Every structure is written in structure tokens, then in C-alpha cells.
Amino acid sequence: MRLTVAGQTTLDQPPGPNTYTPTSTLASTLNLAPSVTPNILDPAAPDAQTFCPGYKATNVVTSDDTITADLTLAGAPCNAYGNDISDLKLQVQYQNAAQLNVKIFPKFMAPGNRSLYILDDSLSPSGSISTGSTANGSDLVFEWCNEPSFQFRVKRVQSDEALFDTFGSILVFEDQFLELTTKMVPNYNIYGLPEAIRGSFRLPNQYTQTFWNQYNEMNDQPIDANMHSTHPVYLETRYGNSSSKSHVVYGRNLHGQEWLLRPEQLIYRTIGGSFDFYFFSGPSPTQALAQQQLGVIGTPVMQPYWALGFHQVRWSYQNWTVLQEIIDGYAAANIQLEAIWNDLDYLFQYRIFSHDNNTYPIDEGQAFLAKLHANGQYWMPILDPNVYVPDPTNGTDANPTYDRGKALDIYIKRGEGHTDDYIGIQWPGFSVWPDFLHNASQDFWTNEMLMYHEQLAFDGWWLDINDLSSWCTGSCGTGRLADQPVHVPFKLPGEPGQINYDYPEGFDQTNATEAASASAASASQASAYPTPTTTVGTATVGFTSATPGVRNITFPPYVLNLTLEGHSLLREVVAPYATHNDGYNTTEYELHNTYGYASGQATYNALLSVFPGKRPFFLSRSTSPGSGATTGHWGGDTNSRWGNMYMTIPEALTFSVAGIPYFGVETCGFNGNADMELCTRWMQLSAFFPLYRNHNSRNTIAQEAFRWATTAEATRRVMDVRFRLLPYQYTLFYAAHKRGETVLRALSWNFPDDESLKSIDNQFMLGPSILITPVLAPLLRTSQGVFPGVPNTRWYDWYTLEEVQVQPGQNLTLDAPLEHVPVHVRGGSIIASQTPGNTTKMTRMNPWTILIALDSQQEAIGELYLDDGLSQEPTDIKEVKLAYANSTLTTSVSGSYDDTNCLANITIAGWNENGGHASWSAVEVSVGGNSVESKEVKITNRNGAVYVTGLEGVAKAFDGNLSITFK
Q1: Region entry Disordered: which residue ranges (predicted)?
Q2: Of 221, 350, 468, 579, which cross-links 415 as Cys (Cβ 3.0–4.6 Å)?
Q3: In the chain, where are the structural domains located?
Q4: pTM for the predicted model, two decimal places
């Protein structure tokens, strides 16, 4: 069964033809960059390790907490992929007991070229020495030698094992090429280095991760390739003697770079900057990740409570009426909807801080938003950082936003000795980009948001294409503004020849007739609109030799293995020679991977002005270390394929390594058509990701959760689970914000000593207590998973509370009909929940239920955090510790936040007495040490669980310390 909404056709094509005229000469500019072979794929490329001289350490000075030395080139310069820097400085800091920092940077730097090597704190947080830190008090130790050249290793003091070991290799430091090699243990276990779409969470030992932020409009889901974000950090876990130890290594450098994982070594290469490594000793995975956040990159921002609701967006919501129909569709299907989002459709010709008055008139929008907000729901429009440049010869082609920025002279410059603006192409046509290093850019960005909010009361943004994408080569708009508006140099979804007829695997078996029809339509379209052949320059085999004394930042000698054809730094981005307004005219070559962070910081600060005292809510497409302190992230234009759905789990866990727990994906997929089964299973999976959002493209069928009856029913069921877990998940975010803990977790993080869990990524955990075992392949009505910790750990079915009977290491088959996703609760956990309402606000007004899942000792613990869910710095909070032992539940409450909801029910799973189940008949309740009458309380047993009801009239749940004893 499919439901339809008025105003949307089956394929949901955009209304009418695109009014922009494509310009063939602009389209061809994409092909100006030459094609070269990446160095890692070029057998003729020289190996710097074989002929570079390395360095010698002199003037070594050691103190209680630091080591410094001069490093001098130990022979003739090799100039492998740049110009060797002869004199370096070593600085080692024991920053706290678990954190060691090793910096190597040029000894002599003029003020104007410091930014070439040293990453400014405003673009990426850095660590500092804690008071009292010393080498003697550290978990880690730095060792070095000078033979045959300078080498170092970082070791764990307790076990004397090397965690990072460059002994036996050469340190290479050139102005456009740096290399370090560390030896690795056999079959090592590394996780992290986002962002990439990968088939596994544990990285292969033969793998290369490239970092250079790019947006590939034609394929935003390249496998094992660079994407929108750069996070040079990994977690390594080592097993032995029925235990494990983990550590984190973070390379603080945001130049273009590669991490080459090889069977016996890890090779780190970057095309600029300096060595700036942080080591965190753990020894558990969660401890090491927390140390990274608390010590350097910052803990994650506290999201507003409503961010944990369900969100809906589609590129092709054509007007306010359609938005309302989508909202009504969810309401009619009895599916919670927290926020409706807008893709580009609401904008006037894709120009930011505008609206299309024909389809999104402002008066109608104001009425729409007033009704939406009155219902406790929210509106989240898209925002791009690029600013449309109008045709100065056309008086009707005005853009006040551009004019205000131009008056402040805040846009990124064309470079190469020019002082005029760099003009590339983005959605609206010729565009410029605010330079967030300019002192006036923050005021400009804030002012634009304030003015726009006066017109249309948005509730936050999703900040797109801030990886600094540009869809032509170079400043292609310079001298050509009379051609405005210009079409982007590719066909948009929904334009002739761009209807998507792809369906997920298994669709031909479940919908054979429709699959055949789609296949025929696809073939017909391909015949009518054949794909044009293009040439990307002239292929060059081999590398570009370095020229002494010259830095070639357009085509550097070391060629990164970038995802786009041609492997050029110029492809689909603002060119590396473009310059910023930071006082030194620093080039994009140095700063490209920082733009997501800088634009995110500016957006966060601007939203603080729009909503004084409230938590800003926005998503950033491009992130880097430190971004999690202000924003969340979504996983790009996911394909509607089962394999892509599977890979969202490794991606989500990897962003936990990066300190960005508020992560989600385009549920049901963005590119291609979802079918009922895929969308059903994906709605179930994403219900346990912090960001829960459904989004797809305008040239595919609509896929809102109410479109198929089975999907709607499955969504209602899984939404019930998600909403009951909202207090638990919100508490996890508080723990992440205050203590650096993780929200989504790999099984191996909660059970770090079980080596059999090291590669599991078809299951994951929400915090320490909730285990998810989703269905990840078509046509299945079961899922399979392990239950860690058995027999010492007990597990209970979330829905029935029956204890799972399973053997250690057993891969258990679980029933999973289409409407059902297996969820299990870990014994020893206490989870406070509320009955779901139609929004998070309504849910928070409902009575409390406490679920107690007992461990083998008949005990359990839990915690709960409460505040108003909106204030940036709430004055009133409440922290609750819950414990169950000796047939008594106790709560320890601190804080002044007033939660007026009563405690309605207590459910206990796993209670037994002499092999039987509970036979309690009464409860004894005290609040603050005072007995409270509890006549209406009822106790029943079902499926091995005890249900205590009728507590509503006894007391408010968390008004004071509570004690409930079962007799």
C-alpha cells in the first residue's frame, strides 16, 4: 500500500523547467586540470625513506615535563616532493598523566609564513600542560636516539610496549611533504580516520585514507575515499592474556594528507604543515576517547532536547502547502514528527538568506511557522556558505546579502597576487565565499541571520557544502558576471535525463513488475539522453619533480589519491591558490580543510545571537577536530542500497572516535529509490542514531515513513522504543558533554577484553546498556548477533523482558519480522523512561517508568540527567543516581531542576527467588526519609518480569531521595 500527498507526482519532479541556461564554456572548465597518477599508485615515484638524510638532534634540554631539541638535516637535501627544511625544533610535553604531545616544526619562521606550518588555535583546539604534570607521573614515555638519524618512540610505561615507533625509519620534513613511519604490531586493530564510507569499522591493514575535503555531486558516496571532513585520529586496541589496552593517536595537521595502513607499518604523509602528535594512554577505548576530548578537541556540545526527535526533509518540497501536507501525513499515521526541514526549494534561485516569493511567500510562511511552533515543532532550512554574485550590469539582478559582504570586503580572494574576490560556481551560479578569518565576517554572518529570522522564524540550520566546493576550475566568474545566472555545470536531479530509476537489491524479487518497468524506463532514458564523454586533461605518468626554492601549491609534487577523476587539488573546490584575509594572505592550500570548522564556529556564534541563552542547533556537512563542540554531522547523500545502509554503522561509530556523537544519515537513502522493505529496515536502524532524519532527492519516489503501511507500522513501533529511551539518550549526551563519554558504541568498547568483538559492526550499542541487532539485508525475517559478556552478563529482550538464553560467543538467530527490530537491555542497568507523546515536548510531560534489569547478583545501577532541554547554560539541573540491591530501589538526587512528573510504574526484569519468580505483595516507600502511603500499588508477574503499577499518587519521581522496598 502506498499513500500519496497532493502536489507530488510519482517521481516528484520539480515544477516546470529549470530557468537557468547552461553555459557550455563553463561546463568545460571542469576539465582544465591535468590528470596525474597518485604517488601511492605510481611505481616510479621515489621513496623518500631510501634517499633522504633524516635529522640529527642537538641542544637537548630535559625538564620535569618537557624535552626540547634542535633537529638539523643530517646530509644533503633530498628535496623528494618539496624543499627540505634544514633546521627544525623538537618539543615534547607531558601534558597530563594520560596525554603526551610531540611537536616538530621549523626552527626559523618569519611571521608571514608561520601559518604554513603551525595550525592556529582558532582553527583547531590544542592541548596544554596541566598543573603538576611530569614525566615521572605519566602513563607514557618518550624515547629517542640519533643513530643513524633522529628517531623516536612513545611507550606505555606499565608494559614497556611501544605505541608509536619510528625507529628504523627516516623523518622527512619538506615545505610540501612530511613523512613519518611507525611500526605496527601484527594484525593490528585500528579504528577511526573519518570521513570515509567503508565496509567495516575495523580498518584493513592494507588501506589508504586520504584527507582533502571535496563534494562530488555525481557520487557523494565514494567507497574508501576522501569526503567532506578531515579527522586525523585513530583508536588502536591491542589484546593479550584475556585483556586489552587501547590508546588514541591524533595528528594535529589539517593540510591535505594520507595515512597509509600497511601490514607492518603505518605511514603518515602530509603536503604541508608540521608534525603535531597527541598520544592518549587509555587504557580502555572509552577512556582514551574521553582523554582526547577533555585534553584537546573539546567535549561534544549539549544538543537541545528536541534535536533527539524525528526529522523529515526532502529536496522537492515545493511550497508551504506541501510542507503542511507532510506534517499532516505524519500526524494522520500517528508517527511522531519533531521538525520539518527544507532543502534548496525554499530559496529564490538558490541564493542564501532569500525565499522564493512565488512558492514560499513570506506571509504564508509566517502563518505556517506560527502554527508549527504552537504545536511544539520546528523548521530547519538549509544554508550554504556561498554568496551569489549578481550581474552588475543588470539592475534587477540584485543580492543585498552580497552587497553587505562586499562593503566589508570579507570574501576569499583570487590569489596569485590579485586582491579581487575569488568567484566560483555553486548552486545559484557565480558565487563568492565569506572568509571567516576576516574580523568582520562574524558580524556579517550574524547580521544576515538576525534579519532573516525577522522574516521567517527558523529554528536552526543545516550548513551544507561548507567543504568549500566550487563546480568550476579556478575563479571562473572573473570578468564574466554578465552571464549570470549560470547553471551549474551538470544536470540537476529531475531535469531531462536525470530521473532516477534505481532500486535497492532484492526489489526485482519483491516487486517484479515495477522493477521491470523501472528497468525499461531507465534504458529508454539512457537512449534518449546518452552520457556525454569527457576528457580530463592529458594523463601524466609519474610525479612532478620539486623545483628548488619553489612551492607549487596548484600541482604539488606529491599527488594525493583524491576521489575525483584527475586527482587534482583544483577539482570541484575553491582553488588552493585562493587567499584569505588573515593578515598573511594565507592560501587555501594551507586552510582548505579548516573551512568547515571556521564556518561552523561562525554559525554557532550567530545562532547564539538569534536565540540568546538558547542552545544553537545546526548540522555541518564539513567537520574537523573540535567541530563536535558546536555541531553535529550527517553522513552525506547516502545511496538507497542495502550495502550503504550497512555502512552507516561503521560511519557512525567512526564519528564517535572523532568526538562528534550527534550523527545520523539520510534514512532510507538520498540517491535512488527506496522500496518498502529497505525503508522499513532503515527507519528501524536510524531510530537508534542520535540524529534521526529521513531525506531524499527530488528525482526519486517519495519515501516518508507513512508512504507504506508496513513502514508506518514498523516506524510507530520503533519510535515507541526511541522515545522511551529519550531520557537515557539525553543523559548519555550530558555524560559526553561533561566527561567525554561516548553515545553510540562498538560492542568492543563496552566489553574491551573480548577479542572476538573487535570486528563486529553489524551490531552496536547505545551507551552501556542498549544492544541493537538490526536487519541489514533484503528478504530476511531474522537477524543474527552475539551477546557479549555471557555468562557473566545477562541480557533481556526489550519488548518482553525475557532473559536471552545464549552461549558465550554464540551467533544467535533472532526473530525479526518486518515490523520488528531486535533490541536488548544489559543486565545491571536501570533506565528511566516516559510514555511517548507526539513530540519530545509532550513526552517530557508524561509520568515516569523505571526499568530495572538485574544482573547475576540481583543488582542494577543507572543515572538520569534533567534540565529544561533548551538553555545553553541552564541554571537549574538535576542529576539522579539510581541503584537497586536487596529488593530496594533507591535514588540519590542533586540539583534544583523541578521535574513535576510522578513515578507511575517500576518494572523489574530477572528477579528470582530460589529459582522461582518474585512473590512480592507490597512495597514500602519513603521520600527524603519519610514514609509515604502506597495503597494503590499493584504487583504482577509476567514472562519472568515483575510489574509494579499504581505509583502515580505516591510521589513525584525525582523530587527528592526516594527509597522503594519490595516485600
Answers
A1: 1-20
A2: 579
A3: 63-297, 734-966
A4: 0.96
